[in-house]
């Protein structure tokens, strides 16, 4: 047996922290995919590093240090999902009420674009994988997103390779069922940048003018709309626009909107502001998905922390 000091010996706390820190960005994205919550993902990365330090003697070099960290992060996420399931009341229908956008600045902060492929951080993808069992979701992400081999995935999750292959097959079937048929169009560069900008401009102008017909002209007939953390979702352009109008859109009571463009989750987004107390103040964040030259999906979030998403706190 070698007498060489273990590479993660207790005295090497600083070296351990520096080694683990190199993987913070991709681990945070991994936890985000598992949990669909940006805030929870940040917390789980910290928990991962703490667990890794406490379990450092278990790292025997059978896998890469990166894969070992992924295993710890995945199991921390599975524990968090189990805790969440115990505390959540039954919802009337399946919706990811805890879904949160991922700031574009955070996506651009890491060194490795391979772990942030556009289609794996789209909101529709995140919602789709929540339909899987937690273990199937973990297997899908470790195999198809992170790129771990089947044996390494099995080792990190404490299951057999046969179980990994079975879970992966089920997970891919769920993806095929849940994701839009035009998913192939999501690849970066598939939609002309000029066309996307023109559509965004029309959407913003129609929103600011509260021009219902112009707004409808930007939307797909089968538009999908959701407002996490509210469990309801709506399908159909006329249904969605009718819901907006019933909520006061275009009325003096709600007020005229001002819009600022940004991006989250590798998607176009619009920060919406309403006149309050002598300034335009943040109201909502619309995250858009395009298909066939139209807006196919809008997910609207409360805009409680504009700076997180590269938006101003107020507009003069």
Task: Using the CA coordinates, give the radius of gyration.
Answer: 22 Å
* Structural domains: how many: 2
The average pLDDT is 87
CATH topology of the largest domain: Butyryl-CoA Dehydrogenase, subunit A, domain 3
CATH class membership of the largest domain = Mainly Alpha
Can you describe this structure?
The protein is of the alpha+beta class and 316 residues long. It has two domains: 10-186, Butyryl-CoA Dehydrogenase, subunit A, domain 3 (Up-down Bundle); 193-309, Nuclear Transport Factor 2, Chain: A. It has helices spanning 13-21, 24-35, 38-54, 65-87, 104-107, 123-129, 134-146, 150-157, 161-178, 193-209, 212-216, 237-246; strands spanning 219-226, 233-235, 258-264, 267-276, 279-291, 294-302. It has a six-stranded mixed sheet, covered by helices on one side. Helix 2 crosses helix 3 (38-54).
Describe the SSE topology.
Layout: H1 13-21, H2 24-35, H3 38-54, H4 65-87, H5 104-107, H6 123-129, H7 134-146, H8 150-157, H9 161-178, H10 193-209, H11 212-216, E1 219-226, E2 233-235, H12 237-246, E3 258-264, E4 267-276, E5 279-291, E6 294-302
Parallel strand pairs: 1-6
Antiparallel strand pairs: 1-2, 3-4, 4-5, 5-6
Helix pairs in contact: 2-3, 2-4, 3-4, 4-7, 4-8, 7-9, 8-9
Descriptors:
Nuclear Transport Factor 2, Chain: A; Butyryl-CoA Dehydrogenase, subunit A, domain 3; 316 residues; elongated; single chain; 45% helix
Task: Describe the structure concisely.
With 316 residues, the chain is an alpha+beta fold. Helices cover 45% and strands 16% of the residues.
